[in-house]
């Protein structure tokens, strides 16, 4: 699967340190092939669609999702070419979801570049996302394993999770249960699909597939919780995320849900600032002063500690899921990803 002609093209920028040089070299070469597959997939006879797709893909990214697929494949036969197609499909689904997210959020930037919706229009961005989703599932359609082809269900879960984020928990619904359900669909489902596809396409055994599924579920929720904390404490130059972005767009993050359901003056003030607009659900427009005040209230709120405890619990669950897997560099790297998520949240 690793070919010499690609060995120098794609660095593992932004990825956890790989102390095993053989694994690092193999992943670097395979990610280069995956990159080629992605670029072949986004070719279109329609110039605007081709340009918009390339604009999004050229913005780069850490390629976490294809790397997870490639790591999972190390527990089977990583040289099966279907592994590469599955890895490329995972990145295409991720890119498509980002393109749609930018429309929903009214975002003007993506990975430091003008977003597709800002450069062209919402309509172009929606159609580009649809195109990328279709190309991803065309890649999966060539995979002989029936279970792998059925990963189209991940698309259903992504959409369901996005709807849950937009609507928020219903009156009387436990906010923590709601959050986990939402994040399991919106974020964890794709990470679960990445490792599941890597295991299935490499011919790994059922025990390995189940272990990696559990890992993907727990790791995905932990990843989103850490992202919630980055919105409060992250440095923009390192995380690429401006503080208070989630508050600005009205995202129901875990610390916010904990704080809004709490008692005390800080919780009461947050409810005043972020109170619902009649007929529209929770407020999604804030002045700069309101966002700064809400962010500061959240930073000092006990909800942050509760959130960190929940993050630690999901990281521990992800690590425990790896127990049945054979020891080696691939398992070590999956564990290192867990440590990276914990460190990422500060």
Automatic annotation (TrEMBL):
Keywords: Magnesium, Metal-binding, Transferase. SUPFAM superfamilies: Terpenoid synthases (SSF48576). PROSITE patterns: POLYPRENYL_SYNTHASE_2 (PS00444). Pfam families: polyprenyl_synt (PF00348). Its cofactor is Mg(2+). The keyword Magnesium applies. Belongs to the FPP/GGPP synthase family. This is Polyprenyl synthetase family protein. It comes from Streptomyces smyrnaeus. The lineage of its organism: Bacteria, Bacillati, Actinomycetota, Actinomycetes, Kitasatosporales.
